[in-house]
Amino acid sequence: MNNQNLSPKKFKSKKQKEKRTGWIAFWNILLKDIRTYYLKPPNISWGIIFPLAWTGMFFIKSGSGLGTVSTLLPGVVAMSILFGTTSLLAVTITFEKKSRSFERLLLAPISLEVLMLAKTGGAIVFGILNAFVPVIMAAFITNLSRVNWGVFIAGVLLVAVASTFLGLFIAVAVSEVFEAQTFSNFFRFPMVFLCGLFFPIAKLPVVLRPLSYILPLTYGADALHGAINGGNTLPYALDFSFLAIFCFGLFALSLRNVRRKWIV
Questions:
Q1: I want to staple 243 with a disulfide (CB 3.0 to 4.6 A). Which of 79, 128, 158, 178 is the partner?
Q2: What is the spatial distance between Cα 18 and Cα 16, in angstroms, rounded to a whole number?
Q3: Would you tell me the crossing angle of helices 69-98 and 41-62 to the nearest 10 degrees?
């Protein structure tokens, strides 16, 4: 029946039913991905071993004591989010496209935007939880009473969303899981050294500094440095604004690629 032939009351009821159906589909897709991918032992151990290994590596390299924990913590948190989210998206999206499971999801009574948010929601949650692993470890060996938790949580959330949408952008641009992992490294490893995670951007060669400011993790790391040890070089409003722009831009580009390459 055409919507124009419906009474206002019936039209409103139909819209409410479609909205409820959409939310049910959203949560079912999200919970399915969490059960299938994110709660597996390798992924859980990844969130513990990876931050611990990187923290230990920097301690050994610098020869520093426990006093440098708060200096290293923002970089370890940002890196844990980045590697955790992008690695999982490379598997979930690319694998389901290859196995044609994604095509069945397109039949769900929800828009493509909501579908992709459902597919990325689990990675965002995983990234946020991943961020607090090094924080919990640091709480046992250093004083975190001066942390600005409001800014820290906001920074973690935006970094998790931006990193997840970066992973989505990479995953929808390739057709194989190994291609997604390789392409991810093309972005991830330069970010470790260019985004001010463990040493200031000001110490980079002049020719490399402009590259730092076109990478989303630069702004997330700056906000986290400010929240933990007051070491931000940019205003929080600017950091959060650029992170939000990256989130919307990466998500829009990912949707464009899905419509062009995946939907016939």
A1: 158
A2: 5
A3: 150
pLDDT in tens, 123-158: 898 889 888 888 888 888 888 888 999 999 999 999
CB contact at 8 A, 96 and 172:
no
The rounded distance, in Å, linking the Cα atoms of 264 and 245 is 29
Which residue carries 């470890």 as its tokens?
137
pLDDT tens for 231-240 read: 889 999 999 9
Residue 48: count other Cβ atoms within 10 Å of its Cβ: 15
Q: Where are the alpha helices (DSSP H) in 66-176?
A: 69-98, 101-105, 112-139, 149-171
| 5-17 burial: b if 16+ Cβ within 10 Å, else e | eeeeeeeeeeeee
Between CA 165 and CA 124 the distance in angstroms is: 9
**DSSP letter assigned to residue 27:** H
CA distance 77 to 202: 21
Q: Domain spans of the chain?
A: 16-262
Furthest-apart CA atoms within the chain: distance in Å: 75
Distance between CA atoms of residues 126 and 163, nearest Å:
11
Helix (H, G, I), strand (E, B) or coil at 260: helix
- Counting every residue written for the chain, the total comes to 264
